Amino acid sequence: MTFLPVESPRLGLGLAALGRPGYINLGHGADLADRSVEGLRAQAWAVLDAAWAAGVRYLDTARSYGLGEAFLGGWLAARGLGPGSGARVGSKWGYTYVADWRPDAPTHEVKTHDLPTLTRQWPETLAALGRTPDVYLIHSATLDSGVLENRGVLGRLAELVASGVRVGLSTSGPAQADTLRRALAAQVEGVNPFSVVQATWNVLESSAGPALAEAHAAGWTVVVKEGVANGRLTAHGLTGRGDVPAPVARLAHEHGVTPDAIALAAVLAQPWADVVLSGASTTMQLAQNLAALRLTLPADALHDLNSPPADYWAARSALPWQ
């Protein structure tokens, strides 16, 4: 397959829902026609092909996304997308996938933000991707894990920076802003090794916005995840998934798009958002997400839909793996 160069949009593709048979996106189970390794690899490659053809160049995965890194690495090799192709790859460390390919597993991933985990997972990531990632993030860093004060971890990340890898963190939970601000002040021998953050921001949970603006102003790259709130802001076809607020549904009707496109357009409207991830599981979902790039919304559109962060994250924690 030959790909023609296309201008890269600000929309990226995340493989959280494509690298493993179980995830917390609403309707995820119905999106997977074949949950075998071979079936899911084929589906991941089809979505990657469609994303690349549309100009998507930022591809996000993680050590804990089942076989997400291996699927991405195999696809890059099969398509001949090596250095100089324009593909930018981000991955993450700190969670270990333990579900053994079972959607009904009692535990899907285990969080360990220590130096032994970083030491083990970095070469695993290199082997799975078949290349060095451009961006390497602490996966869902939180203040209570102590990772941002772990001198061994920070020192090793500084070594990766010296080798040409951009390092940073992803955030999760109601204290995202506090975690990010702590990372903005991190120091290793007088230098902050971090320059990238991936955070949750959507029209239901925008509390991290001011801190993300601070990171952007400091020269960091800001990547936004969960723009459709794990499927809550979607209503694909006749499945009826999600609990789309009336203002989002109204704008979707006015613009002739699906609600997810409105939700992602609201993220793209933020001046500090450098890359906004699509978490599409199917090529149809990806096409619907990409419609966001044709829309222009004001930065404060739908700001009144915010819920208290604690309430939002409690609702997210209650979502089932499926």
Automatic annotation (TrEMBL):
SUPFAM superfamilies: NAD(P)-linked oxidoreductase
Gene3D superfamilies in UniProt: NADP-dependent oxidoreductase domain
InterPro entries per record: AKR2_Oxidoreductase (IPR053135), NAD(P)_OxRdtase_dom_sf (IPR036812), NADP_OxRdtase_dom (IPR023210)
Source organism, top-level taxon: Bacteria
Domain NADP-dependent oxidoreductase stretches: 41-305
Pfam families linked to this entry: Aldo_ket_red
PANTHER family for the chain: D-THREO-ALDOSE 1-DEHYDROGENASE, NADP-DEPENDENT OXIDOREDUCTASE DOMAIN-CONTAINING PROTEIN
Name used for this protein in its record: Aldo/keto reductase
